[in-house]
Every structure is written in structure tokens, then in C-alpha cells.
């Protein structure tokens, strides 16, 4: 195998891996704080992609500029899903036996509703948005590096760093971390747990709002697009360690590079089997993930 | 105790009866006014991954039926009107079969059209054969569908092997015309039924005709990045690339090929799928698909300069309904309805046996049924329309112009062969 | 997660002591038996009055009821969510077809052989995964099933066995043949699926009364406590999973014979796994009749929305599914069978109060 080709596979793998990691951030945060596996994660990304698309199609807003709309919009959607759909379950759970599967099933219901409402509302056609910023590809020797992917990659790193800092240094951030460690103790010390949960879910979704706008510039948009990202996000989060913010990025990079390099030797179909196999293996051998605490 | 028992039994029976009526409602709602109407069933993927194609076919079918009914229905049957019954297969074989059962048993359809997905069409047409109900296949290309000695199953469009043969025929023809052409080919396709069976056909034919396959690569549907595969194509340096992808993946592939300026000296040859979907062209930059060769079931530029009134109407209504221009599947649905009208006029009856015989005797060379782009529609003893063929267009100056067959090529169409490198394009 | 100091103790106390208590849930009184017999009779008489389409629809509903019951056999009682059961259906379906086309083995033998192969696969998959809990287990089952699906779709033949990739396998027509399990009419298929369903329900009923069922419930109630009482969760869960996979595999074989076509996208696809799980959960997992109720309510729902709306509203029935699922999880965590049972119990009490 040509070393030049392999090194570009590596670069591409890192770029797309960073994007996977950024998309998975919200999933990891929500699980870390609330122990809720959000099955509707991909669906929220799909909503964000459509929001970016429609903002451009109807109002002429560039996808990169639409961030100012999609981020608050998705925050609101996440906040609502938590306070309307999931909160009743958590209220009930405090009295009954904890059933973590209920939350998974509940968000599976959200996934079914959102994806199929989108199909009804937007139709099955494929859509695309493109930025007016004519960004010439960055040339690395003979092979071009796509700028839209590079921007999304950098945004993922930036989002992970700022999220970590925010969780560490602000009042709300500290409340979220306290709640993640011990819900009952946090409630006793005067933290408004339902609000913390709603804000957490909102932030998890808002991150998808950001990536919806960034990804809209290079991903085909269909009502089913969420599923491919959703499943991959699970793999990324498990790999990096559920609930770990840096783990999410590391997991994304590992899976991105793994798939890119494996694809140079086997067809993409086999690479897909291998990455699912890697997922199972990590769960069985080291369930806490690469960056998680054992 | 006894009260309990009877109440329970009543409850249970009530529940049974309820679910029984639930099944029946579909039939009762329509059964009463079927006197002067001829019910025609369609099984299409109206939801799920192939829903866009199902909607296109459905729109074409609906327009044809509106035209036929507005023009006085089936004249040989006292102006009887056609009535459409659509069924959604969701692209799933078992649901397609259940819906076929419903159309035949409950809706009493005279004939069925559909069902695009080969995996749905194959078992569903077996049911139609058993119930002696004629079925005109539209869209599905699996060869075996018309190789089972069935009497009631007909197919208007190409078999899968025809598609691969036409692509290589076009390459060979351009090679003969210009004296230059590709020596090495790469095939890149989606890893489900359609892509894989097309690849198998190309593999076989390419070997027979002396091409070297330098890359043979499948990808699972709904990818989010093709960078790794493009690197492989770059490393393999094929002279031409044969691609089989549905719309979302084809959009991604076209965009990334363009962004990476990956040159293919003798072009990209797409076997339809995404590239015959009008919504694809709405979503993609024209520059990204310049010089594409597209094999599709219908000649895209066949109607330029030939404004037959019935075709102006269908194209306008199609655009009004879906927001984009006519597609191959819309055209096939439209034509199948005119084949059915022709058969009904000759059969003078909606009786399934009589209609089957009339469809088997179909021999059309003119009229709206030709909208699909064939010169003749006539079924062989296996029910295959042997006059079915596709056309291959090249995207020149933002327009898809037919280059193959040579007879269909407009005088002012000059194929770009070899294809200009990205750097040399204006 | 935070361990409440008294939780272990509580759970241990909740474990029924000694012999399995007679579960009120599955308890069948003489009246219930008679009602069951009546339902059975009505079911057996249906082909005499129903037309082919109604019969076909009933077969489909009963097929889903059977699959959901098979799913419930392990997942409902262990409290683990498998979203990969379609892999067992796939093994059963493919084995039945391949044994018939390759070796000429009658599907009557192919069905149980396919079931055994599915059970063998379930042991291989279940042995490592049952250690995982909650969402981890669910995600792993999806991953296993998807790996098998993608592999089958991209494999033309393996060791000389023609798997036929994404194109799927067809069962060659053999005409009306009892030996080949092919019939022109629908009634034989109907009786077969009724028999299979009755068998699965009986197996579940027996499970509730068996030591195995007792241990599974203990594991579900509190795994650590059960373990401390000397119950090996892995072993009992694995036995239940193997039985469940065996039944699911036979279901896959039935699908192959009835539709005479199998393909990986459908029979090993995640949609089928989700259907099995949802019907069981919405109907009432961990009960004998819950999955049957779920299938009888949900399968026709899909059929009706398809039939009456003719696809005018794409995906509407899935929106309805999703809403029902959310409502059920929030307000009827024990499934739709719980309120139904409460009503029946009240009626029984009133009727029984002489």
C-alpha cells in the first residue's frame, strides 16, 4: 500500500472522526448526567440539518450564519423533550425501582415520532445546502483537504474544550456535575434537579444544532440521515467512555481513523462489520471505554 | 362464575370481531360503487427508503388515469372509468405480499402494477400468478422475474442484464467512433440487492469484452463520507468509473469527486438510481455532474422540440405535484396505465383472464404509452417487453443529451470523449 | 450509580421464599380455561368462514404474536432489552430454505434444525453479552444482528453454501406438497402458526411455573441479591435465551415457507427486531398473553393505516407507534394487559361474589 495514500487516509480519518466525536458529545453528556441513552440523538441532528437547509432555502441564510438560529432552536427542542417527555419518568423512578431501559424505550418513541413527522412534513426527497463562502480546498501535496470538514473538525474540538471549561467553572456547570454524581445529594443541597436535567438535555441538543449547521454544507439531508449518525454516535461514546467529554472526541478520532485505514484494505461493507465488532469487543473487554474511569 | 365466563367470552369475541372488521374496512369503503369503475391496483414503496421513487411513479400513474377518465374512460366498455387503489409496500417483501393479497381479494382489482423493488416484486408477482391476476412490472430489474414461465406477469422495463450491457455498449461505441477509450474500469456500488446485482453483471461483461477491472468496491447504503473510497479510486487510477447508488449516496459521491477534483479520463458512468432522480439535480451543483454518463430507462431529451399536447400536460402536472420535472419512474407508471387502457379496449372486459390475454397480445408502436421512451411495447412468452431499452445521456452544458443509442442522438450533440480534466473545465 | 444502602436488603426481602408462588398473573381459573377453549375453537373455525385475505392478515398478525411471545420468553422475564432477535429469525429462515434447496431436507425437519442453529448462535452471542446490563446489552444485540445482516448481504456463498447476498433466497415452488410444507390454500399455514403460537404460549405459561421462571424473576428483581442467594444469572439467562432463540428461529422458518422468500434486509433487519420488542413491551412483557395482545393491537394498526390512507401520509403509522410507545412507557409500564387484567379481575370478583 502506498504510504502517501495511507497518510491521506489518516488525515481524512482524523477529520471525519472529529466530526463523529463532536456529534456524539451531546449523547455522552446526557448519558453521563441523567443515565438516559438518547435513542433520538440522530433524529435531533436530522432536525438541525433540516433547520439549516430551510433557513437557506427560504430566508437565504448561509448555513454557517444559521448557527445563531439552530443552536437556540435545538436547545429549546431538547429542553422541551426533557421536561415534557422524560421528566415524568424520572419523577416516577424516584419512587419505584430504577428501570434504565424505560428511558431508552421512551427516547425510541421520540425517535419514531420525529423521524416520521419529518418524512411527512419534508417529504422523502434528498436535500442539500451549501455555503456561500467559496472555500478552496486546502492542498496537502497532491490531495485536497475539504475545508467544510476541517471547519467541523475544529468546531468539535472547540466545543469539547468549551463544554469542559463551562462544566468546571460556572454555577450551572457545577450544578450539572453535582447532579451527575449524586442526584439525591444534589437535590438536598438545594439544586433544582429538574431544571438541571432540562438544561443538560438542552445543551446536548444545542450541540447538535451547531453540527447541523456545519454538516449541512457537506452531508446529503434526508429524513433518515439521523440513523447513520445515531448508531455511529453510540459506537463513539462507548469507545471513548460513556459520560466522558474528552472520551467522546477520542472515541470519534479512533473510529474515524480505524474506518478510514481499514477501508484501504477491505471494502467499506467489511469495514462496517469490523467497527461494529470493535464496539462489541470494547463493551465486553473494557465497558468503561478508553477514557472512562474503570 | 357463569356471568364472568360469558362476559369474558363476549369480550374476547368482541375483540375478534373488531379486528376482523378492521381488516375489512378497506374493502367495504370502496366495494359499493365499483359498478361502472375498473379498479387498478398499484403496489409501490410509498414510505421508507425508496419513498421518493414510489411518489414519482404514483404521480405518473395518477396523471395518466385522470387523462384517460377525462377523455371518456374505456370506450369499449361504455366509458367505464379507471379507479386507482394504491398500496404501500414499505420496500418490505412480506408487506408487499400482504398488500397484493388485499388488492386481489378485497379490492378486486383487474390488474396490478408495480412494485419497483425487486425484493418486493419477486414474491408478490408469484401471488398474482397463483390468483390469475395480471401484473405489469414497473421498475424492478431482477432478471428472474420474467424467467419463471409465468402467464400473468409482464414487465415493461429493462432486465438488470440489459442495463449493464447498454453501459458497456455505449463505451464500446464511443471507442469505435473516436478510436480511443478506457482500458481499465472501476465499479463502485451500493451494497444492497440492486447495486450488487448490477456489479455482478458488469463484472461478467467487462471480462468478456477485455476490460481490466482495477477496483470492485461496495459501500453500505447511507454513507456520510466517501473520502476513504475516493482514495482507493485515486490509487487504482481507473480510466472510467461505473457507479450504482441511490440518491443520497450519489449526491455525496458526486460532491466529493468534485471537491477532490478526482479525474476520470473516460468519465463516470452511472446506471441511474440517484442520477435519474430529478430531486438529485435540484440538490447537486451542475458543475459536479458535468460530463456524467447516465444510463436510464427513459430518454431524457426525447421530447425536446416535439410538444405533443398530452405530454405537455403530464410534464406540467408532474412538476406542479412534486416540484421537479418528469422522472423515468413517473414516465413508466404513466406508460403502464396506457398499456392497460389499450388492453382493456381490446379485451372489452375487466375480467382478469380476458385482460391477461389482451395484455399478452399487446403490440404498441405509437400513442401515449410510448412516453416511456421505447419504440415498441410487445411482450415475449415470458412476459418481458423485449423492446425495452434504456438510453445513455451525457451531461453537456448543464443538459442531459442522449448519446446512445446513436440513432437517438440529436445532430447537434457531440459527446465529450475523453472527458475534460477538472482543471481544463471553464 | 449510587447504591442505596438498604436497596439490597429490600430486594432480597422481595424475593418470594421457597417454592415459586402461584403467580396471580398467569393463574388460570376454570373459567379462564373455558374461555381459552372457546377462543381456541373460534380460532380453529376461522378458516371455514374467512376469505383468503382475512386469513392472510390473521396469519401475519399471529406470526408477529408468535415472534413477540418468543422474544418475551427471555427478554420479558429477564428484563433485558434485545433489539437483535431478528438474527435468530434470519438463521432459522435461511437454514430452512438452504436445507431444502441444498439437501432436499423437508422443512418439517428444517424448521427445528433452523431453530437449533439459532439456539446455538444465541449461546455464542449470549454468553459474553448477558454480563452487560440495561442499554449496554440492548446496543450489543443491535451490533451483533447488524454484523450478521451486513455479512449475509455481502456474501454470495460461504463454504460452497449459496447465501446469495442481498438478493435473498427463494423457496422453489413444489406445488401442493405436505412434505415440502407448501400449500396452495392459506388454511394449512394458518393452522401451523396457530399451533406454533399455542406452543409458545404454553411454553411461557410453563416457564412462569417453573424453577427457571422463578429464578429469572429473581434475577430481574435484583440481580445481585439473586446471585448472593446462589442463583447463577448467566446460566439461567442463557437457557432462557436459547429457548427463545429456538422459537424465534422456527418463526423465521415459517416466514420463509409462507412468503417463499427470505432476504437479509428484512428477516435480519433491525425493523423486525424492533417490532418484536415493541409489541411485547406495549402489550405487557413478562406476562403470558401480553405480547399476543400487543401484536393483535399493533399489527392491524399498521395494516389499517396502510390500507385506508394508501400511503397518503408517509410514515403516519410509525408516528402513532411512537406515541403509543411513549404513553405506554410513562403510564402503563406493565403494558396494556395490566388495565385489561384489572378490569377482568374486577368482573370476576363481582361475578364470583355470590
UniProtKB/TrEMBL annotation, chain A:
Highest taxon of source:
Bacteria
| One of the protein's GO biological processes | amino acid transport
CDD domains the UniProt entry points to: TM_PBP1_LivH_like
- What is this entry's stated membrane topology? Multi-pass membrane protein
Pfam families to which the protein is assigned, alphabetical: BPD_transp_2
Could you tell me the keywords of this UniProt record?
Amino-acid transport, Cell membrane, Membrane, Transmembrane, Transmembrane helix, Transport
Q: Has keyword Transmembrane helix? A: yes
Gene Ontology terms, MF aspect: transmembrane transporter activity
Q: Which residues form the signal peptide?
A: none
What is the predominant subcellular site recorded for this chain? membrane
Q: Which residues cross the membrane?
A: 6-31, 43-61, 67-89, 96-114, 150-167, 195-221, 233-258, 264-285
Q: Gene Ontology cellular component?
A: plasma membrane
- From the Swiss-Prot or TrEMBL record, state where the protein is found: Cell membrane
What PANTHER family does the entry give? AMINO ACID ABC TRANSPORTER PERMEASE PROTEIN (PTHR11795:SF445), BRANCHED-CHAIN AMINO ACID TRANSPORT SYSTEM PERMEASE PROTEIN LIVH (PTHR11795)
The record's comment on protein family reads: Belongs to the binding-protein-dependent transport system permease family. LivHM subfamily.
Protein name (database record): Branched-chain amino acid ABC transporter permease
Give the species: Methylobacterium oryzihabitans
UniProtKB/TrEMBL annotation, chain B:
Leader sequence range is 1-24
Source organism superkingdom? Bacteria
Which parts of this chain are annotated as the region Disordered? 406-426
Q: Name one Pfam family in it.
A: Peripla_BP_6
Keywords of the record: Amino-acid transport, Signal, Transport
Q: What sequence ranges are listed for the domain Leucine-binding protein?
A: 37-369
Q: Which Gene3D superfamilies match?
A: 3.40.50.2300
Query: Known InterPro entries for this protein?
Result: BCAA_transport, Leu-bd, Peripla_BP_I, TAT_signal
Q: Which GO terms describe its biological process?
A: amino acid transport
Q: Which family does it belong to?
A: Belongs to the leucine-binding protein family.
* Name by which UniProt lists this protein: ABC transporter substrate-binding protein
Q: Which organism is it from?
A: Methylobacterium oryzihabitans
From TrEMBL, chain C:
- Classify the main location: membrane
Ranges that cross the membrane: 23-47, 53-74, 86-103, 109-127, 189-207, 238-258, 278-301, 313-332
> One GO CC annotation, please?
plasma membrane
Q: How would you describe this protein's topology in the membrane?
A: Multi-pass membrane protein
Protein name (record): Branched-chain amino acid ABC transporter permease
State a single Pfam family of this protein: BPD_transp_2
| Subcellular location field | Cell membrane
Which is an annotated GO molecular function term of this record? branched-chain amino acid transmembrane transporter activity
Name the keywords, alphabetized. Answer: Cell membrane, Membrane, Transmembrane, Transmembrane helix
Amino acid at each position: 500500500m502506498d504510504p502517501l495514500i495511507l497518510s491521506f487516509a489518516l488525515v481524512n480519518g482524523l477529520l471525519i472522526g472529529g466530526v463523529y466525536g463532536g456529534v456524539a458529545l451531546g449523547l455522552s453528556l446526557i448519558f453521563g448526567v441523567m443515565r438516559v441513552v438518547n435513542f433520538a440523538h440522530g433524529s435531533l441532528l436530522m432536525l438541525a440539518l433540516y433547520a439549516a437547509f430551510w433557513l437557506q432555502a427560504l430566508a437565504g441564510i448561509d448555513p454557517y450564519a444559521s448557527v445563531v438560529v439552530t443552536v437556540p432552536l435545538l436547545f429549546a427542542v431538547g429542553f422541551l423533550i426533557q421536561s415534557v417527555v422524560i421528566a415524568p419518568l424520572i419523577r416516577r423512578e424516584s419512587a419505584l425501582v430504577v428501570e434504565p431501559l424505560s428511558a431508552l424505550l421512551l427516547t425510541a418513541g421520540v425517535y419514531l415520532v420525529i423521524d416520521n413527522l419529518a418524512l411527512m412534513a419534508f417529504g422523502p426527497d434528498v436535500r442539500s445546502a451549501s455555503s456561500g463562502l467559496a472555500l478552496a480546498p486546502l492542498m496537502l501535496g497532491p490531495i485536497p483537504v475539504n475545508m467544510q470538514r476541517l471547519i467541523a473538525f475544529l468546531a468539535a474540538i472547540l466545543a469539547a474544550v468549551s463544554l469542559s471549561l463551562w462544566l468546571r467553572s460556572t454555577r450551572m456547570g457545577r450544578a450539572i456535575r453535582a447532579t451527575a454524581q449524586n442526584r439525591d445529594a444534589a437535590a438536598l443541597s438545594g439544586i433544582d434537579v429538574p431544571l438541571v436535567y432540562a438544561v443538560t438535555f438542552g445543551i446536548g441538543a444545542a450541540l447538535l444544532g451547531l453540527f447541523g449547521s456545519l454538516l449541512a454544507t457537506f452531508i446529503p439531508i434526508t429524513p433518515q440521515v439521523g440513523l447513520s449518525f445515531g448508531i455511529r454516535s453510540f459506537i463513539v461514546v462507548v469507545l471513548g467512555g460513556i459520560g466522558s467529554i474528552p472520551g467522546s472526541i477520542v472515541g470519534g478520532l479512533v473510529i474515524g481513523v480505524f474506518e478510514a485505514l481499514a477501508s484501504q484494505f477491505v471494502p467499506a461493507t467489511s469495514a462496517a462489520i469490523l467497527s461494529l465488532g470493535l464496539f462489541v469487543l470494547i463493551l465486553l473487554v473494557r465497558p468503561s471505554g478508553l477514557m472512562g474511569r474503570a | 362464575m357463569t356471568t364472568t365466563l360469558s362476559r369474558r367470552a363476549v369480550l374476547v369475541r368482541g375483540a375478534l370481531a373488531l379486528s376482523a372488521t378492521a381488516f375489512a374496512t378497506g374493502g367495504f369503503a370502496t366495494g359499493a360503487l365499483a359498478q361502472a369503475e375498473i379498479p387498478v391496483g398499484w403496489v409501490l414503496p410509498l414510505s421508507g427508503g425508496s419513498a421518493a421513487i414510489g411518489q414519482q411513479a404514483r404521480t405518473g400513474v395518477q396523471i395518466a388515469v385522470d387523462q384517460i377518465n377525462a377523455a371518456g374512460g374505456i370506450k369499449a366498455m361504455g366509458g367505464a372509468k379507471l379507479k386507482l387503489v394504491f398500496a404501500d409496500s414499505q420496500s418490505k417483501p412480506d408487506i408487499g405480499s400482504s398488500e397484493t393479497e388485499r388488492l386481489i381479494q378485497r379490492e378486486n382489482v383487474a390488474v396490478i402494477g408495480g412494485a419497483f423493488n425487486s425484493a418486493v416484486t419477486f414474491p408478490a408477482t408469484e401471488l398474482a400468478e397463483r390468483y390469475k391476476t395480471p401484473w405489469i412490472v414497473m421498475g424492478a430489474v431482477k432478471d428472474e422475474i420474467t424467467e419463471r414461465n409465468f402467464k400473468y406477469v409482464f414487465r415493461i422495463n429493462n432486465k438488470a442484464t440489459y442495463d449493464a450491457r447498454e453501459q458497456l455498449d455505449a463505451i464500446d461505441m464511443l471507442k469505435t467512433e473516436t478510436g480511443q477509450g478506457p482500458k481499465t474500469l472501476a465499479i463502485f456500488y451500493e451494497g444492497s440487492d440492486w447495486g450488487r446485482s448490477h456489479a455482478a453483471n458488469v463484472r461478467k461483461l467487462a471480462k468478456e469484452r477485455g476490460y481490466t477491472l482495477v477496483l470492485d468496491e461496495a459501500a453500505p447504503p447511507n454513507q456520510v463520507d466517501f473520502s476513504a473510497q475516493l482514495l482507493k479510486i485515486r490509487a487504482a487510477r481507473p480510466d472510467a468509473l461505473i457507479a450504482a447508488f441511490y440518491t443520497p449516496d450519489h449526491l455525496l459521491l458526486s460532491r466529493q469527486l468534485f471537491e477532490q477534483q478526482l479525474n476520470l479520463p473516460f468519465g463516470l458512468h452511472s446506471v441511474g438510481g440517484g442520477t435519474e432522480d430529478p430531486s438529485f439535480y435540484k440538490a447537486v451543483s451542475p458543475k459536479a455532474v458535468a460530463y456524467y454518463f447516465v444510463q436510464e430507462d427513459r430518454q431524457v431529451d426525447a421530447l425536446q422540440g416535439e410538444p405533443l399536447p398530452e405530454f405537455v400536460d403530464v410534464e406540467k402536472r408532474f412538476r406542479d405535484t412534486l416540484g421537479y420535472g418528469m422522472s423515468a419512474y413517473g414516465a413508466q407508471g404513466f406508460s403502464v396505465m396506457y398499456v392497460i387502457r389499450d388492453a382493456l379496449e381490446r379485451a372489452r372486459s375487466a375480467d382478469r383472464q380476458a385482460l391477461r390475454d389482451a395484455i399478452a397480445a399487446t403490440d404498441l408502436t405509437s400513442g401515449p404509452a410510448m412516453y416511456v421512451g421505447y419504440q415498441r411495447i410487445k411482450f415475449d412468452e415470458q412476459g418481458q417487453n423485449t423492446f425495452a431499452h434504456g438510453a445513455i445521456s451525457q451531461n453537456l452544458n448543464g443538459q442531459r443529451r442522449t448519446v446512445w443509442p446513436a440513432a437517438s442522438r440529436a445532430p447537434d450533440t457531440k459527446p465529450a470523449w475523453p472527458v475534460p480534466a477538472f482543471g481544463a473545465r471553464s | 450509580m449510587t447504591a442505596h444502602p438498604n436497596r439490597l436488603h429490600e430486594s432480597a426481602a422481595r424475593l418470594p421464599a421457597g417454592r415459586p408462588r402461584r403467580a396471580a398473573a398467569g393463574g388460570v381459573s376454570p373459567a379462564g380455561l373455558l374461555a381459552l377453549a372457546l377462543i381456541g375453537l373460534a380460532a380453529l373455525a376461522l378458516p371455514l368462514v374467512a376469505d383468503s385475505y382475512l386469513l392472510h392478515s390473521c396469519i401475519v398478525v399471529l406470526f408477529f404474536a408468535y415472534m413477540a411471545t418468543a422474544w418475551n420468553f427471555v427478554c420479558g422475564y429477564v428484563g433485558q432489552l434485545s433489539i437483535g432477535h431478528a438474527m435468530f429469525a434470519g438463521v432459522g429462515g435461511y437454514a430452512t430454505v438452504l436445507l431444502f434447496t441444498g439437501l432436499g431436507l423437508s422443512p418439517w425437519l428444517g424448521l427445528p434444525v433452523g431453530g437449533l442453529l439459532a439456539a446455538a448462535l444465541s449461546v455464542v452471542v449470549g454468553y459474553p453479552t448477558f454480563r452487560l446490563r440495561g442499554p449496554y446489552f440492548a446496543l450489543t444485540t443491535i451490533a451483533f444482528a447488524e454484523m450478521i445482516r451486513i455479512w449475509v448481504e455481502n456474501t454470495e456463498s460461504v463454504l460452497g453454501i449459496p447465501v446469495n447476498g442481498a438478493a435473498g433466497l427463494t423457496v422453489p415452488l413444489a406445488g401442493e406438497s405436505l412434505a415440502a410444507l407448501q400449500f396452495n390454500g392459506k388454511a394449512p399455514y394458518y393452522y401451523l402458526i396457530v399451533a406454533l403460537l399455542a406452543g409458545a404460549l404454553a411454553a411461557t405459561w410453563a416457564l412462569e411455573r417453573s424453577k427457571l421462571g422463578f429464578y429469572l424473576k429473581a434475577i430481574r428483581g435484583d440481580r445481585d441479591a439473586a446471585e448472593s442467594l446462589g442463583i447463577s444469572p448467566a446460566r439461567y439467562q442463557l437457557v432462557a435465551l436459547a429457548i427463545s432463540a429456538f422459537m424465534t428461529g422456527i418463526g423465521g422458518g415459517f416466514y420463509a415457507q409462507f412468503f417463499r422468500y427470505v432476504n437479509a434486509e428484512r428477516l435480519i433487519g433491525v425493523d423486525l427486531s424492533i417490532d418484536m420488542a415493541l409489541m411485547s413491551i406495549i402489550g405487557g412483557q413478562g406476562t403470558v398473553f401480553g405480547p399476543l395482545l400487543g401484536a393483535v393491537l399493533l399489527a392491524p394498526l399498521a395494516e389499517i393505516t396502510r390500507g385506508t390512507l394508501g400511503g397518503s401520509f408517509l410514515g403516519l403509522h410509525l408516528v402513532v407507534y411512537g406515541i403509543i410507545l411513549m404513553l405506554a412507557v410513562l403510564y402503563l409500564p406493565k403494558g396494556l394487559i395490566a388495565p385489561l387484567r384489572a378490569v377482568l379481575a374486577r368482573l370476576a370478583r363481582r361475578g364470583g361474589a355470590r
